TrEMBL record:
Pfam families: Redoxin. The keyword Oxidoreductase applies. Keywords: Antioxidant, Disulfide bond, Oxidoreductase, Peroxidase, Redox-active center. GO terms for cellular component: cytoplasm. This is Peroxiredoxin.
Length: 191
């Protein structure tokens, strides 16, 4: 089963990920000082940012007309939905900022060139960070999955206050509701 359009997805046909406990250790963690390349050309050290930061992680975004990395991509729990998740953060960006997010970032293990194409195509108002070398993933023991020889992040969102992980959304399903859930949490938990 392959639902062709990247943003119009019938989530009832997609298997939901289960909570495997892969992110249970993250709340309370301090972020390590690791500079990640961003689609805006900068390098971002999440541990050095002041204020409240929202980082949403995802396995990998697709490109229109390109095939998935493996047959059955849609049936891997948590794989499908990176573009809808990213678009939901784009669409709610102003509200997230108004609710206290000093900065918002996407995060994947894809390279910056690939991410930059997606950021331009989707008109993202925030940078996407590349953990292609898995430095942050390994340092924090972020939940990952192996698909087609690639190490991919499992879908999550982190609320980070001054370099300290305050809250985790994991697992995330359906992905297009993640930004709304983060927004509701920010409004209910002002700094």
């Amino acid at each position: 089963m392959n639902q062709g359009h990247l943003t119009d997805v019938d989530w009832t046909l997609i298997p939901a990920p289960t909570d495997d406990g892969g992110a249970a250790h993250l709340p309370g963690q301090m972020l390590p000082s690791i500079a990640l390349p961003a689609t805006d050309g900068s390098n971002v050290d999440l541990s050095a940012l002041h204020g409240r930061t929202v980082v949403f992680g995802y396995p990998r975004t697709g490109q229109p007309g390109k095939i998935a990395p493996v047959d059955g991509w849609d049936m891997i729990p948590g794989a499908r939905g990176c573009t809808p998740q990213t678009c939901s953060f784009r669409d709610l960006f102003a509200e997230l900022k108004a609710a206290g997010a000093a900065q918002v970032f996407g995060l994947s293990t894809q390279g910056t060139d690939y991410q930059s194409e997606m950021a331009t195509r989707l008109h993202l108002p925030f940078p996407v960070l590349s953990d292609e070398k898995l430095a942050l993933s390994r340092a924090l023991n972020l939940p990952t999955m192996r698909v087609a020889g690639l190490t991919l992040l499992k879908r999550m969102a982190m609320i980070i206050d001054d370099g300290h992980i305050t809250h985790i959304f994991y697992p995330v399903f359906p992905p297009d509701r993640n930004a709304g859930d983060v927004l509701a949490w920010l409004r209910a938990n002002p700094r």
